[in-house]
Amino acid sequence: MRGNTQGMRGSWVTLLVAGSLLAGCSAQGDDGAARRTTSPSSSASPGERATPSAGSTAASVLTPDASLVPKTSKDGRVLADSVVLAPGDWGRDFVAQSPAESTPGTWAVLDDGCRWQREKLPRGVLAGVSRYSRLPAGGGKGAVTVTAAATVHGSALSADEQLSTTLEEVLRCPEQQPRADARITGLMSLGTPFGAREQEYADDSVLEAGQYVEQGGDAQLYRWMVARLGTVVVAVSVTGGKGHTRQDLEQLGGSALAKMLTRVEQRLEGK
Amino acid sequence: MEPLRTSDPAKLAGYRLLGRLGAGGMGVVFLARSAGGSLVALKVIQAEYAEDADFRERFRREADTARRMTSPWVASLVDADPEAAEPWLATAFVPGPSLGEAVAAHGPLPVRSLRLLGARLGQALGDLHAVGLVHRDVKPGNVLLALDGPRLIDFGVARDQEDTALTSTGVVVGTPGFLSPEQAGGGGELGPACDIFSLGCVLAYAATGRPPFGTGTLDALLYRTVHDAPDLEGLAEELAEVVGGCLEKDPRLRPTAQALSEALAAAAPGPGTASAPDGSPADPREALRAERPPARPGASPAESAGPEEQVPGDEAWLPEPLIRLIAERSAAGLALPGIDDTEVDASADGAPAAGTTVASSQDRTVGRRRFLLLAGGAAAVAAGGGAAAWAALSGDGDDKSSASGAAATASGPVHTIGLHADLSGDQKSIGRAQERGLRLAVDEFNSRAGKPFTLAVKTVDDGGDPAKAPVVAKQLVADRSVLAVVGPTTDATALASLATYDAASLPLIAVSPGATALLVMGSRSFLHARVTDTVLPIYLDAFLRGAAKSRTIGIVDDRAADAYAWEISSTLAGVLRDARQPAVPKVVSALRTDFGPTLEALLDGGADSVVFAGYHDRAALLARELRNCDFPGARTAAQGVLDARFLSAAGDAAEGWVIVAPVMDASVAPEARAFAAAYRKRFGAEPERYAVEAYDVARMAAQSLGTLTAGKATRANLTSALRSATYKGITKNFAFDKRTGALVADGGGVYLWKVDGGRFRYQGAAPYQVST
User: Fold this and answer.
1) Disulfide-capable partner of B1 in A251, B132, B188, B390 (CB 3.0 to 4.6 Å)?
2) pTM of the predicted model, to two decimals?
3) B43 is annotated as contributing to ligand binding
4) Which one of the listed residues B52, B79, B137, B558 is annotated catalytic?
């Protein structure tokens, strides 16, 4: 990898382009007819693959110092704590939500009814931390709600399967229920492994795009950005409405994720 | 041929100079006409070499030797003057295309042609070696094709010793890729065996279209020549052994020229009556004297050839398109400026120099008669005076990407269709099939009487490497005669080269890539000649809920197949959701090699059928898992699994899999019967997958070119014409979205294949609606 934050940001620009491409396709959304004409995709993804056998992990971004890679829940918790952004890391005016952090030893699982539940961490997952922050409404602009999360796995396969599961969730539930009084709708996602579409910042990544609707409220833009470095998965969500452009919100999420990836790199490479 | 320069004399050594055939380190080669009217290649040595007494002595000795040599398959030495201030030598001029040009323009030669080519070149080398000459630069550019057989040119006389050896600075002046290891290594004596090695390379190239040690950087080529086994894949078994013997690293293990010639001649059917009783290759002069029945008027040689023959015609040793190319060249030769009126009666049949090919009266008569029969309208060239354009004759066609073939004739301008393909990488079977389909379409077009223009083919190979794709795309862009390109082969190479073609407004017609992304990059010159991968789930759904009676479809998205898989899995999930049908989607990490848990999850979810969104290699892993647990339901995938490697990797577990793909099986589809017959005749093989799809788009491109009025045949105009074209092909109806170049889908063009008995068996058109 290019090894600096600037490089990561550059890569995020690419991802965001892919994201707008993906969002652009949703506008066409005319699927359903058994007989389509052109470009009928509800989830067109910019594809590029050369050979069937080249895996997404042909090259790795991270060359960790093995002694620094967490092997216990305790070490995993320490790493996740040090990586996940606190309110102040998002920007000067961000404040903690209530609750400010997830219950230790749990993570979010999408059940068969497309509802998000917190469940105990399964075997193979060492630790998970989510912190919830908020930029209050002001200056004619609506509030921005953000989440930063890190999950530390016992193996790269386990971590990679977290991303597979994320993609699977959108196939299963393009509409999800994060809380009883809120919906995430029109969800689409795009996974981009290292090396594909100029993604050079993480071993793997997933971008989800949709709308967030609270009861009685307007639809807000919703983004969920996930990236994996080795055995660590970091993610951010950004939800914002009135007065915030898509570019602003994606930029906010992109830099937050890049910041966490840099932290993971520093912790695991011992630099 | 280049015109003469102002500094060139009008006459030299009694020859009238007509043009420049080439120039090299030692001097210039002119096309010239003798006082007697025969055409010669006149090589004039720079005076500085002549100052070297040793050189002059060697030149004299070799010229004397060569003058006495009378091999029928060597362009014979007509005359030489080692004593002149600028020594010169004249050899019979052969108007035919070089082997390099011929292969680049028309693809690999059929086995029968290869045998005759090899036997005769072997005989030529045997004759050279017998008088003590070593050629040292046997390569496709030094083999010219005539109607009666090949001619080896540039045969060792007056060749700079450094030409083909490593020089002190490490530069190879000759032709890497056709050098022997002893030449490539720069050491050892360059004996006759180095010519045999080079001939082996030439034959492999003529048989496969690829130099056996690949292409690429000089260092890599030389290294591979010295250390690696040759790439002989695709070479007919009966030739592989002989060619392999020539390519032994140890010169002592290679056959002699005579042994090689005999081995190849033994089984080669001779050219009609010209074949000598002992099976040795015929002398063309014998052939010309032989009585032969007049050809039936109006009958094309192709029609009169037996179905089992790979090359048509009673005595043609080459496939018909090449015979036509030679005939056109010969015709152009006849149209060159005549002998000075003041010296010789232009109509004189004269006494031609012995051994010349084109200008001897016999040759001319036979050559012209044959070409009238074969090439029809090209005869007009002969009457058309000096307007005939010439393609460079001595230019090296060795580089597969460098030559484009047909010379302009009176039948109109030459337009080239490029092929951008993976001819040597992971998907080479698809790329090579597309090349064949394209060549067949072009050959058929060119054989039409009264065609308004002539088509040529130019191929470039990206090896499936996205980094190389834009580089080879630029090669096609740089050739102004290229008006449309078929290809590339894969999603990745197509995406990587789209911008290059767009910037040049060069129409790019993709036959095999399916990525939807190709349509949203804003390319103005792209034409997607198949439905996107996101359309295939409609057919998968129709098959599974229709014929296979599945109630709950399991979807396996393999992340190792990235966007290809995602286009299929995510669209299928959407199709099923919209139809309010249950589905069990599973996304599998690229790091996972055990599909057991995936299958468990499918079964837990109640899936009674499976769609695998991924490629053939990992499909085999899932197939074995499904087999192990006796999964009773239907197993399906898209074109990523339509690959022979799936069958070999999955074995019995592949049985029953159904593939939905935008690929017709032209070997059995009734719509493709005529195509398949022509294909078998042309290539001696069953049509491979994606050949007929490329054939269709080549014909569509020719049709659109035909709608452009003379002078308007530009890339941009062709793009517009193609995007508004409608064309009824064998595989589908073509019409495009004018803005994006997307195929206007009408439900056709997608087919079903089923694994049965270890083979993919064609099931015909895929339905797109669940039958009720």
Assistant:
1) B390
2) 0.64
3) yes
4) B137
